[in-house]
Amino acid sequence: xxxxxxxxxxxxxxxxxxxxxxxxxxxxxxxxxxxxxxxxxxxxxxxxxxxxxxxxxxxxxxxxxxxxxxxxxxxxxxxxxxxxxxxxxxxxxxxxxxxxxxxxxxxxxxxxxxxxxxxxxxxxxxxxxxxxxxxxxxxxxxxxxxxxxxxxxxxxxxxxxxxxxxxxxxxxxxxxxxxxxxxxxxxxxxxxxxxxxxxxxxxxxxxxxxxxxxxxxxxxxxxxxxxxxxxxxxxxxxxxxxxxxxxxxxxxxxxxxxxxxxxxxxxxxxxxxxxxxxxxxxxxxxxxxxxxxxxxxxxxxxxxxxxxxxxxxxxxx
Length: 317
What we know:
By secondary structure, this protein is an all-alpha fold. It is 81% helix and 0% strand.
């Protein structure tokens, strides 16, 4: 019972992060499951089974609020499902002693990316309104789906920043479309794990606990994103992912780092992490004082829509 409560709290915390950033539910949940000694393939399988429910609820919510571009969902979601299925079967066939460092390296890479992305650039958007091409979305979906399954998460960290960086879709629709398309990825990954591991490889009770926590956190995350700057939260989460997976790598038998070396590395990671969060806070405060929109281009796009509506109204009159 104690384990289920802890897993529900993990699911709640991961959904708070994901709901605020449009990413990191799988990465956060899988990282914490690995930290308590869960088999890598079983951890990813359990998280993806829970994500079927959380992504469905998230997608429906985004759809009701008009945050979904269905062309993007299909163009990235279908290739993403293919990549996730391949990644899940690949991870299922790896031996545990091989899968553990592979997953830790993938998660560490994603953590470093999230940390650097939100610390130094935040979220920016330009050239809103230009169409996203299939030749861009299809490869992105394949890579994102494969990374998501093999790393236990990564669909959001791969897809959300890439589409935001293109500047062709409103940030709210980027997050809504990525979250909605992740439903297809979660189903495909779960099918791949069922094929590779069988039902014995998935802990249904753990998945339900993660799901329960995620469903409770979903409305809270919608409120939380209004008061916590995404840039600061992204730096904080990225640092947590890096620290946890550095710990995993240093405790592997093939590394077997001595105590003094291990603690020295931990201290260095924590120092960099603290510096990154402090930098993000200062950058956020400078942005607020300057009166610059948190997402560049969003305010201009909104102003353009308002101006267009006013002009149209005058013409109709």
